[in-house]
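Following up on my earlier thread - several people asked me to post the actual chain instead of describing it. Fair enough. Here it is, all 274 residues.
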Amino acid sequence: MTGLQKTLKVVFLGLYLLVMVFPLYWIVITSLKPQKDIFSFPLRYWPQKFTMDNYVNIFKISKFHIYIGNSLIVAIIAALIVLVISVLSAYVLARFKFRGHSQIMLAFFLTQMLPGFIALAPLYLMMSKMDLLNTRFSLVLMYTVGLIPFSTIMLRGFFQRIPSSLEEAAMIDGCSRWSALLRVIIPVMLPGIASTFIFAFVQNWNELFLAVMFIDNDALKTLPVAMNSFILKFDVDWGAMSAGAVLSIIPTIVIFAFAQRFIVEGLTQGAEKG
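Reply from S.P.:
Thanks for posting it. Predicted structure:
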């Protein structure tokens, strides 16, 4: 690679980084601006005065701590259920051939091609008849059902990378298939399991559409619904919206920071063989 090529590469990557980082920077800066400075003209890319009023106000004018708690409960529980079911189903689909195997995989792929809103009316009627509207369980159930197909497809790729001889050797040593799965295969699968859990958690954490449709009780609303409430009829509370956005991305940043190694390794391995 010549010097010119290296320079162009650095310039391109720098511009790309700027484009990616600037929206996050602008959200953080807006959340720290006084209300009158948010709409100032010309634009100020660095506020003259920093304030935490926007962060204080979102807890004063709304039950923001409750919304965060609801989102954590729903996102974590649904992600754990998705993980358990997907690990078991992916193991079966990766290790065994049976009648209907191809049809099940085809059905899983087809679910990823259909827009979710086409099932909204039947889902709403079903939740209503089961008396599950305005409950966290309805969101957990919907999130779990929606993420199992993709998570199963993702984990199946990891299982196919692991030689079946590992569990066969464990069973020869006296382990049952279930014990071999838990003691031998699962530890090797940790990158894939971590990646799948994080994927499911982030999807649940950011989901808005179903949360708006199934939850009316203010005490049960999730964080995306609370963020949506800052969009008023004739205005948008940009200060509160930005402060809420900053707080909402903290859990995902923490998770990615702790599991970065698993994410990179896991997604790369899972994509190599599916």
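The two ends are 34 Å apart (CA to CA). That should answer part of your original question.
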